[in-house]
Amino acid sequence: MKLAFDKDDFLKNYWQKKPCLIRQGFADFTDPVSPEILAGLAMEEGADSRVIESQTDTESGWLVTHGPFEEYEQFGESHWTLLVQSVNEWLPDVGELITPFRFLPDWRIDDVMVSFSCENGGVGPHLDQYDVFIIQGAGSRHWRVGERQSMRECQPAADLCQVEGEFKAVIDEHLKAGDVLYIPAGCPHDGVALEPSLNYSVGFRAPSKAELLLQLGDIAMQQESLQERYQDPEIGSDDTSWEIEEKQLAALKGFLKEALESDETDRLLARIVSQSKRPLPEPELPTTAAQVPDLLAQPNAFIEKASGARFLKLSQTEFYGNGEAFAVSPEALPTAEWLGQLQGSKPASELSKRVNSTAQAELVAETINQGIIYLYIEES
Predict the structure, then answer these.
(1) Dihedral sign, Cα of residue 339, residue 345, residue 348, residue 349
(2) Residue 185 within any structural domain of the chain
(3) Is 89 helix (H, G, I), strand (E, B) or coil?
């Protein structure tokens, strides 16, 4: 799939600045999932799903029901939406929707949420704290999107946040299959289905400072090099014991700044951003380096990165995936870079050309064992 638009113009004028509508960004768009398959997925215990209804007979006008679902008849034929998170981790075909957006950093890509809306279905006007591309699938939807602004939020039902009051729309359009809507974080928006519709939301991670500090603190507790204790040898006898002085605050900030600017923190941040949203499925039996050449040589064998997996390069010798560090020798560097750039499914023979040594085979085996990539046989 190719996204038909000027990426440089988009990054310069729209990315994290203002919303835009890309008409027929995907020409001749074909839905990678049907409403029936999505509804079936929402019946699975592990799927994160919910139905949002707009109801005139409730005090707030809204109702949220969480899955897994057994049936959908009770929701009627209009005014409700089924949303399922991280569908790309369940259905590889949906994961293919991420590929056209890989001109943005891999670690920023979060997941693909898929929604099915009956006529007049929607979730109400709201803000997202992350950037999102919304791909219109089957059906059509009326979207209103405003520029970034400060708006009061409310919660008309459990697990449903909306904005209060009206917002001025800079985009007020009907979307048809293949149209793509980009909405930066903090821009109010509201979409209402004009007929039964599918939508695909490719979301991007936007961790807050607090979230990153919390994750960094948790992982830093395991690092011996960051266990150094704070010291204050410059205390004078005239210092007031009950007063936190500016020089003491400066010393504490400097102590933290020194830790944040260390090479060790670079590595910890790489481990954090390489983590998948959900645990990656690991193989039942570990793969050894000795097995790799024969595995890659199997007829009709294909290699693919697991849905939600990342394999990120930090330096010439350091790669990160699934929250783990991979020490890569110069000999195995071309293999590691090929794995990092891997998009979609590729014949295993393409990787086989890059596995000619023990070091290269060990790297492939390790990424398989970590669940980052997997090998499968396509039946002829």
Answers:
(1) negative
(2) yes
(3) helix
Q: Compute the radius of gyration of the chain from its Cα atoms.
A: 24
Indicate the pTM of the whole model: 0.89
**Residue 126, pLDDT above cutoff 90:** yes
**How many domains are there within the chain?**
2
Query: Which of 204, 232, 266 marks a domain boundary?
Result: 204
pLDDT band at 1 (very low <50, low <70, confident <90, very high): confident
Would you call 202 exposed, middle or buried from its count of C-beta atoms within 10 A (0-12, 13-18, 19+)?
buried
Strand arrangement, sheet containing 171-175: 171-175, 141-145, 189-193
Judge whether 29 and 7 are in contact, CB under 8 Å: no
Write out pLDDT tens, residues 278-288.
888 888 899 99
pLDDT of residue 138: 97
- Considering only CA atoms, which of 106, 68, 112 is closest in space to residue 93? 112
In a domain, 241, yes or no: no
- Give the number of C-alpha atoms closer than 13 A to the C-alpha of residue 57, restricted to the C-beta side: 1
Q: Which of 298, 313, 299, 296 is nearest to 360 (CA)?
A: 296
Residues 186 and 332 in one domain: no
Q: How far apart are the C-alpha atoms of 364 and 341, rounded to whole Å? A: 14
The CATH number of residue 150's host domain is 2.60.120.650
Dihedral, CA atoms, 38, 41, 42, 45, nearest 10 degrees? Answer: -170
Is 244 contained in some domain?
Answer: no
CA atoms within 13 A on the CB side of 338: 20
Q: Domain range holding 36? A: 7-204
| 186 in the same domain as 49 | yes
